[in-house]
Design a protein that fits this description.
heterodimer, A: alpha+beta, Immunoglobulin-like, 5-stranded antiparallel sheet, B: alpha+beta, 5-stranded mixed sheet, globular
Chain lengths: 281, 672
């Protein structure tokens, strides 16, 4: 079952990557804060649609009216303690009902929203390597702990210089390299592992560009977090290859901060257009 | 109504004229911003750049740029301080007056109230007073109503630094790595920035403690002068170890904070992975890692959140197999988040780090202790010293980029700390630790540094030309150090320290009621004076004077086994120092001939066997001798008029360049 979900997510990621590829030109051309603002605002508006059609709008309206009525009662009968207490309890119950009514649209949007978040992470979570900047590559193998590590090597390329490694750590079934980026662009690093060859994308440059931190295995979590590259098969000797990119600077669009910015901006966007869509939240 | 209208018109006219004036003056303001407001003076200090070697290399055409300055009357030997020690010399440079003005007389001074307990002469750490004890912790509460005081380090330099007058006049001054200014003194008017240099400790509060991990190191961590060694034990290619950090000072019984890390080695590829906190360091054998930030949590009791201090260090993988060896630099204060104030203003270190990345902040950056203790080979020390120099050259680029006008001072320690370890200019005599060929080979490292200095000056001249007054200086020169004088042993053997079988000033074997003189520090010698020393016995006045005369006579008679005199001069501090900060001065300053110095043991009061013994340390060159033996250098792109310039002349010279008068307490004079 999990494998099937993973396959579906991998398939959907393919489509999302294609869409992301279309947006790549305009995204690269504008400053990160602007693209984040546009995407977050659009996302906020789009999220209103399932809320409008899947959530019980009449029930939400009724609950909101009930809350208003109880608040009014509390104001009118503020000297009548039993009434105030009862109204307070009813307000709390009603307020708790609202998230329950929002659950169906949230569940429906969970997967698409996660996929979008994953795609945005490719842009906003990490910075590409600068030319001459060093980074650590970690390859995770599938064999059991302490079994011998097959011969591994990083194929020569003019995109990077090998600074150190490969360091094989059998107890963790990991292999490490330290590289220094030498040429700007999006490159494919090739690794020879035993008799097979695998690749990993590497982003180098000073501009705003997508960065795939990890080529994952068929694990649902990793597929959502690292959607940009084709995942390794479940039975592949290599289970993941990760590059330690630097965090992205910036208060609004820096690493991790972009998620907060996304939620705030999308919320504001949704609240701004809510009256036009006649949506009750 | 008419009156109102007139007033309104006048007001409108005034506003209009004012606005027009502002608009028209806009370009004028802009023009003024572009044009430098003050002259430019750039001072480059090469610590320990020796006059004799410099002249020899200039004569041989090896320092063409400096030689060109010499030919334009822009070179003199620069008289150093007495004694010629960096903290003393730079404090004299800062005050424009001799050590009597600033009170820093030696690397090591003594506390007479504790009967000669030694301490670092340029700064002193004072323990905090008061705390609240709570669940095994001592919590100092430095606010009302508790008003506990925290531990603090105090700069012992007295007097007014010359930059104060620049600061007061609105003239900017930027200092990088200035010795004798830790903690950095405050800028009163906000026109002074300073990065403190020599004197800044590492995060352990020492002047540099490396950590070494090896399969053949002691099982239990062994501390040695300037470092620690710990055994690593590998199991299935992995070994666990701990990085020792600063003391967890909030604990009632403070213990060092230890950060665990794991090392994985791959013998096939001769490389290793080090995992520490959230860092993964990959190194091949012989490689250095980049600077890492390491977080040290200071524990606080119960619900209070831990405090954190940040340190930086670099790993160096010396050997993977057969004997795994890993070196870690002293843990420096993190310049992007320093645990103590190391710059003025405090945010200066952060600004530099945000542009340059992390850098050495401790005063001693070249790890000479690692070489002395056999952790580094000569080659490894040379490589580490080159890394330090490269880092400082990047910082010089930063300094130039952010320099508009006023004073720029930049200090290089490399010429000193490499010379201490690599200098050997007398091939006829055997080097303490190297063969003749090796000593010549490594002496070339010093010469290479001088060539590098020449290139640095060339760069500055091509960038600034006559636009700036350039002053290139050194605080002292250098000399071989092959023989060491056990001063306290000599004093004991001559009956000045009693009893005859005592072994050290600090080990309780000295009978102070019969001891008349003792030595502490690199050049200091003290009378056990009644009323000044806790257990003083020599009466001030005639008795003390007689003793001083006797000591000077006898010390000047000291001869080495081959008949060479050891002391060129013994200076009376009352004759060579002048100023208000004489209280901590030694009574005598020992001025050695080249090749001699106070012994390692005597510096801190110990008494080794033999009065004159061989120096067997890798630290085979020194400058703590007679100032006449080790003058520094002074170059300028302007002709130097003064025939015998001294360090104390530079402060009044710099002030004069900005049109400021020499303050009365300065005893130096303008060199131009």
């Amino acid at each position: 079952m999990m494998n099937m979900i993973a396959q579906i997510i991998a398939w959907l990621n393919g489509w999302m990557n294609a869409l992301s590829g279309v947006l790549r030109g305009p995204m690269s051309a504008m400053p990160p804060w602007l693209s984040l603002t546009i995407i977050s605002s659009v996302l906020g508006v789009v999220l209103l649609i399932p809320v409008k059609y899947i959530s019980p709008q009449t029930a939400i309206s009724r609950v909101r009216d009930r809350i208003k009525a109880r608040l009014l009662a509390m104001k009118l009968f503020k000297d009548n303690i039993p009434v105030v207490l009862k109204s307070q309890a009813q307000v709390i119950i009603a307020a708790l009902m609202l998230p329950v009514y929002m659950l169906p649209p949230v569940l429906v949007m969970l997967l698409p929203f996660s996929l979008v978040l994953g795609q945005m992470g490719v842009w906003y979570q990490a910075s590409p390597l600068d030319v001459n900047e060093q980074a650590v590559i970690t390859m995770q193998l599938s064999e059991s702990e302490n079994s011998p590590i097959p011969s591994v090597s990083l194929a020569p390329t003019d995109a990077v210089n090998l600074v150190a490694g490969p360091v094989r750590v059998p107890s963790k079934q990991q292999v490490y390299w330290k590289i220094k980026a030498t040429r700007a662009g999006v490159h494919q690093l090739q690794f020879d592992v035993g008799n097979s060859r695998v690749s990993k994308e590497l982003s180098v440059g000073s501009g705003f560009m997508p960065v795939s931190m990890k080529r994952p295995a068929m694990h649902i979590g990793d597929l959502i977090l690292y959607p940009a590259e084709t995942p390794f098969d479940k039975d592949s000797v290599v289970q993941s290859i990760e590059i330690g990119y630097p965090d992205r600077d910036g208060f609004v669009t820096g690493s991790d901060n972009w998620v907060i910015s996304l939620f705030v901006i999308s919320m504001l966007g949704a609240l701004a257009v809510k009256p036009f869509f006649n949506v009750k939240i | 109504m008419k009156c109102l209208n007139t007033t309104g018109l006048k007001l409108a006219a005034t506003v209009w004229i004012g606005a027009a004036a502002l608009v028209s003056s806009g370009p004028v303001f802009a023009k003024n911003e572009v044009k430098a407001r003050h002259p430019k003076v750039i001072v480059i200090a090469f610590d320990g750049m020796d006059a004799q070697l410099t002249e020899k290399m200039m004569d041989a055409g090896e320092l063409p740029v400096l030689d060109a300055m010499r030919k334009k009357n822009g070179y003199r030997r620069l008289a150093t301080s007495n004694p010629p020690q960096t903290p003393v010399a730079f404090a004299s440079f800062i005050n424009g007056a001799d050590p009597g003005s600033h009170g820093i007389f030696d690397f090591v001074l003594r506390d007479p109230s504790k009967q000669c307990v030694p301490y670092y002469g340029a700064a002193e750490t004072v323990e905090g007073v008061g705390y609240v004890e709570f669940r095994g912790h001592h919590l100092p509460l430095n606010f009302w109503p508790f008003n506990h005081s925290l531990d603090q380090t105090l700069l012992k330099r007295e007097g007014t630094p010359f930059w104060h007058y620049l600061d007061q006049a609105g003239i900017h001054s930027d200092f990088y790595d200035l010795p004798s200014d830790y903690p950095p003194s405050k800028s009163e008017f906000g026109n002074h920035r300073c990065m403190a240099g020599m004197g800044v400790p590492d995060l352990l509060g020492t002047y540099g403690t490396y950590q070494h991990y090896g399969e053949d190191d002691p099982v239990r961590t062994r501390e040695e002068s300037g470092g620690m060694r710990t055994m690593l034990f590998f199991e299935e290619g992995a070994a666990k170890a701990e990085l020792t950090g600063p003391q967890d000072s909030f604990l009632a019984q403070p213990v060092p904070i230890k950060i665990p890390f794991t090392v994985y080695r791959d013998v096939d590829s001769m490389s290793a992975v080090i995992e520490i906190q959230d860092h993964t360091v990959i190194l091949n054998e012989g490689q250095w890692g980049s600077w890492l930030q390491v977080d040290f949590p200071l524990s606080l009791p119960g619900p209070l959140p831990d405090k954190h201090i940040s340190g930086i260090c670099r790993f160096y993988l010396q050997e993977v197999a057969p004997n795994f060896r890993l070196y870690v630099t002293p843990i420096n204060m993190d310049p992007s988040n320093p645990a103590a104030t190391i710059t003025e203003p405090p945010e200066f270190s952060t600004e530099v780090a945000s542009e340059l990345g992390l850098y050495y902040t401790a005063g001693f950056q070249e790890d000479h202790k690692a070489l002395s203790n056999g952790i580094f080979t000569d080659e490894e020390y040379a490589a580490q010293a080159q890394m330090v120099l490269d880092e400082r050259l990047h910082m010089l680029d930063y300094a130039k980029e952010h320099y508009k006008d006023g004073l720029l001072f930049f200090y290089f320690a490399s010429t000193d700390l490499q010379a201490h370890m690599f200098w050997w200019d007398d091939p006829a005599r055997p080097h303490p630790t190297r063969s003749k060929e090796q000593s010549e080979k490594y002496f070339n490292c010093v010469k290479d540094l001088y060539r590098e200095a020449d290139a640095i000056v060339a760069g500055l001249l091509s960038e600034y030309g006559d636009e700036a007054t350039l002053i290139v200086m050194s605080d002292h020169g250098f000399a071989n150090f092959s023989r060491q004088f056990n001063v306290n042993t000599w004093l004991r053997d001559n009956g000045y320290i009693q009893p005859a079988d005592c072994t050290g000033l600090m080990d309780g074997t000295v009978d102070w009621s019969k001891t008349r003189a003792y030595a502490i520090g690199m050049n200091g010698l003290y009378i056990n004076l009644k009323g000044r020393e806790r257990d003083g016995i020599v009466e001030p006045g005639e008795e003390a004077d007689q003793l001083m005369t006797e000591l000077i006579e006898k010390l000047k008679q000291v001869r080495d086994e081959d008949g060479r005199p050891v002391l060129r001069n013994v200076y009376l501090s009352s004759e060579v120092y002048h100023g208000p900060a004489m209280a901590r001065a030694p009574d005598f300053v020992l001025g050695y001939y080249r090749d001699y110095r106070t012994s390692w043991a005597s510096t801190l009061g110990d008494m080794n066997e033999g009065i004159l013994t061989d120096n067997k340390e890798a630290w085979a060159a020194d400058h703590c001798i007679d100032p006449l033996e080790v003058p520094g250098v002074l170059f300028s792109n302007r002709p130097i008029d003064k025939e015998d310039p001294a360090l104390i002349d530079l402060a009044p010279t710099i002030l004069a360049e900005f049109g400021l008068e020499k303050p009365v307490q300065m005893t130096g004079n303008n060199i131009f």
